[in-house]
Amino acid sequence: MKEFLQIRRDRVTLGMVAVLPMVQMMLFGFAINNDPKHLKTIVLAHDQSEFSRSLVAGMRNTGYFDVRGGMFAEGEAADMLKRGDVQFVVSVPTDFSKKLVRNEKPEILVEADATDPAATGNAIAALNTLVQTVFDKDFNGVLSKLPAQAPFSARVHKLYNPSGIAQYNTIPGLMGVILSMTMVMMTSLAITRERERGTIENILSSPATPIEVISGKIVPYVLIGILQCTAILLAAHYLFRIPFEGNLLTVYCLTILLIMANLMVGITISSVARNQLQAMQMTFFYFLPSVLLSGFMFPFMGMPRWAQVIGNGLPLTYFNRAIRGVLLKGNGWYEMWPGASALVVFGVIVMGIGLFSYKNTLD
C-alpha cells in the first residue's frame, strides 16, 4: 500500500508510465518506415522530347521519386547531391531519342546519394523495373516494331558508399548517439544529486551566478565528450575502416557543438527534476525520439511529415547529416553550416531555459 501511495503522489512517474507506451506505439507504429518514397530528384534532361517527358512521368508514378521542376546546371546538381538536398540526379543524354528509335539502347546516368543504402535501395530497384515498361505507350505505329523489353539502360552510380556497406552509415551516427546518451544522462543528475544530498543550499548561498554554476557543471563533461569522440573515431578508422574524406578539425568542431547542445539539455532536466529518478525518466523520454527520429536507425525521408517535424527539432538529426557529410563526402563548412547553425540555435535556446529553471530554484 505504501508503494502504491508513493507512486500515486509522484505525478512525473505516473505521467511517464502513461505517456511512454503511447509514444513508443506512435513512433514504431506510424513513424518508422524502411521503404522511403518521394525522394528528391533532379532530372538533367539534355534531350527535350516526348520520351524524356515519359521517363520523368514514369519516375513520378513509381512514388519513389519526387522530381523537382526547373532547370539545373550539372555543377549545381552535384552540389545539391553533396549537401544532401537531393537524393538522385538523373542525366538524359542529348541523343537519347535518336538512339532510342534506332534501337541502339541508349544509357541514362543515375547518380544516387548512397550514404544510407536503406534509403535509396528500393528506389533504385524500382528504376530498374521502370526501364522495362516506361515506353510501352510511346512505342506505337512504326515504333511498335521496336523490342518491347529494355529499350534503354540505366547506369547507376552509388556515390559516397558504392559498396553499400552499412557500417559507413551507422558508425558516424553511432558517435552522435553515444555522445547524446552519455552527456544528457550525466548532466541530468548534476543538480538533482546536489538537491538530494542536501548540498544545493551551499551552492545557492554562494556568490556564484547561475551561468557560472552551469558552466562549472558542464566543463568536465565537455572534456569527457572529446575523449569519447577520439576513441570512437579511432575505432571507426582502424576497426571498421570508415573512410575519412573530410577535415578532422571540422569533425571535432561539429562534435563540440553537439556536446554543448546535449549538456544544455541535461542541465535543464537537472534543474526541472525534483529527484534523480525523475531526471532519469526525463532523460529516457528525450533520448528515445532522438534515436528513432534522427535518421540514425531508420531513413529520415521515410517518416511521415509530423515525425520529420519532431526530428528536425532534435540536435542529433542535424549532427547525423553533417558528420556523415564530412566523413563520407568530404564536406566543409559551406555544406555543413545549416546543421552547425541549427546546433548552435538549439544550444542557445535550451541554455536559456536551463538558466530560467535554475533561477526558479534560487527562488
From TrEMBL:
Q: Which residues form the ABC transmembrane type-2 domain?
A: 136-361
Record-linked InterPro entries: ABC-2_transporter_component, ABC2_TM, ABC2_TM_bact-type
- The regions listed as transmembrane in this protein's record are 12-32, 171-191, 218-240, 246-272, 284-302, 336-358
Keyword vocabulary terms for this entry: Cell membrane, Membrane, Transmembrane, Transmembrane helix, Transport
Location in or out of the cell: Cell membrane
Q: Give yes or no: UniProt keyword Protein transport.
A: no
Q: Which Pfam families match?
A: ABC2_membrane_3
Recorded GO molecular functions are: ABC-type transporter activity
- Cellular component GO terms, alphabetical: plasma membrane
Q: How does it sit in the membrane?
A: Multi-pass membrane protein
State the family named in the UniProt similarity comment for this chain: Belongs to the ABC-2 integral membrane protein family.
Output the PANTHER family linked to this UniProt entry. Answer: MEMBRANE COMPONENT OF ABC TRANSPORTER YHHJ-RELATED, MULTIDRUG ABC TRANSPORTER PERMEASE YBHS-RELATED
Q: What is this protein called?
A: ABC-2 type transport system permease protein
Species source reads Paraburkholderia bryophila
